[in-house]
Design a protein that fits this description.
InterPro entries: Anth_synth/Amidotransfase (IPR050472), CarbamoylP_synth_ssu (IPR006274), CarbamoylP_synth_ssu_N (IPR002474), CarbP_synth_ssu_N_sf (IPR036480), Class_I_gatase-like (IPR029062), CPSase_GATase1 (IPR035686), GATASE (IPR017926). Composed of two chains; the small (or glutamine) chain promotes the hydrolysis of glutamine to ammonia, which is used by the large (or ammonia) chain to synthesize carbamoyl phosphate. Tetramer of heterodimers (alpha,beta)4. The protein is globular and about 65 Å long. Helix 8 crosses helix 9. The N and C termini lie far apart (63 Å). The longest helix is centred in the C-terminal third of the chain and has 15 residues. It is built from ten helices and 19 strands. It has a ten-stranded mixed sheet, with helices on both faces. The protein has a seven-stranded mixed barrel with strand order 1-2-8-6-4-3-9. It has a two-stranded parallel sheet with strand order 5-7. By secondary structure, the chain is α/β, with parallel strands linked by helices.
Length: 361
């Protein structure tokens, strides 16, 4: 069945509908990863977005039970050049089409994804709608221009109540702003005793748990839409060792007096080179973010840049110059992507152990 993607600038892309027949509006973004579509579809950081995959064939290894990054996906649509209906993989349980039907997510194939990606790179992310052929395009364009991007994305994807992932090692409070399961897997792999908590937890509630460290997770949307988290971090820094990833990195920067801004089209893919300014080593990283920390805003703060993106020199890592706290913009847990930066979790473990030796600060 023919369907179309209509963008807010009036551009239309006609293709074949797969997945759900539901009509959906979202911010249209692109991901350059060659694999990992299942993890991308289930990444909470894509909440409210329509994802274009630049790799031309999607679905050839199906959907399996093990590679999800969340229980319920929150992506608003999937755009591909070609979708595979007959996957070949011993782990495959479903096709992409079957999975999207189950989760009521629309997909569109037969699209010139290269043209769509070039448009996003030229003009920036655009609002779009996946819909049928019988709509009034001009009316859809008017509604897209008036459509406000959601400000409650973190609230939608965060856990409602705390839950544990027991271990015998370091006690970590993991604040869920839209946590990928890969982060939890890396902590439990290191035998951490993890308590996953909602995005709006207070500093006092965290301190009552007496943790050895706090992890700030990834998540969707504008970090300035989560002011309660910024307040919490301000009251935590200097009291507990801290490690932040992606949205957690941006919230940490805001809490320490820096500023963030929206990027033209963001970083979404699994091969972004990042330079560690302390070692001069370069790692290939998995990334998914549409906002970045403003470099000039760091002046006068107690934050030091530790990593930069080699493609555009945006800030990819920070550390506090006085307290045991560091963050990265990229995803050291990968899923999907390279595991070059996986050692940052070990660095976090060591930071907590060192702090235990010196006592409270």
């Amino acid at each position: 069945m023919k369907s179309q993607l209509i963008l807010e600038d009036g551009t239309t892309f006609i293709g074949q509908r797969f997945g759900s027949e539901k009509e959906m509006i979202g911010e249209v973004v692109f991901n350059t990863g060659m694999t990992g579509y299942q993890e991308i579809l289930s990444d909470p950081s894509y909440c409210g977005q329509i994802v274009t995959l630049t790799y031309p064939l999607i679905g050839n290894y199906g959907i399996n039970r093990d590679d999800f990054e969340s229980i319920e996906p929150s992506v608003h649509g999937l755009i591909v050049k070609e979708v595979c209906d007959m996957p070949s993989n011993f782990r495959s349980d479903l096709t992409v089409d079957e999975f999207l039907k189950q989760k009521n997510i629309p997909g569109l194939s037969g699209i010139d994804t290269r043209m769509l990606t070039r448009k996003i790179r030229q003009y920036g992310t655009l609002r779009g709608k996946i819909c049928g052929m019988d709509v009034d395009v001009e009316e859809v364009v008017r509604s897209l221009k008036q459509h406000e991007l959601p400000t409650d994305s973190v609230q939608k994807v965060s856990t409602v109540r705390p839950y544990p992932s027991p271990g015998r090692g370091q006690k970590v409070v993991l604040v869920d702003f839209g946590m990928k399961h890969g982060i939890l897997r890396e902590l439990t792999k290191r035998n951490c005793d993890v308590m996953v908590v909602p995005y709006n937890i207070t500093a006092d509630e965290i301190l009552q748990m007496n943790p050895d460290g706090i992890m700030l997770s990834n998540g969707p949307g504008d970090p300035k839409d989560v002011p309660e988290a910024i307040t919490m971090i301000q009251n935590i820094v200097g009291k507990i060792p801290l490690f932040g990833i992606c949205l957690g990195h941006q919230l940490f920067a805001l809490a320490c007096g820096a500023d963030t801004e929206k990027m033209k089209f963001g970083h979404r893919g699994s091969n972004h080179p990042v330079k560690d300014l302390q070692t001069n080593k370069v790692a290939l990283t998995s990334q998914n973010h549409g906002y970045t920390v403003c470099g000039p805003s760091l002046e006068g703060t107690k934050l030091q840049v530790t990593h930069i993106a080699l493609n555009d020199e945006t800030i990819e890592g920070l550390k506090h110059t006085e307290y045991p706290a560091f963050t990265v913009q990229y995803h050291p847990e990968a899923s999907p992507g390279p595991e070059d930066a996986n050692g940052l979790f070990d660095q976090f473990i060591e930071l907590m152990k060192q702090q235990q030796k010196v006592g409270n600060f």
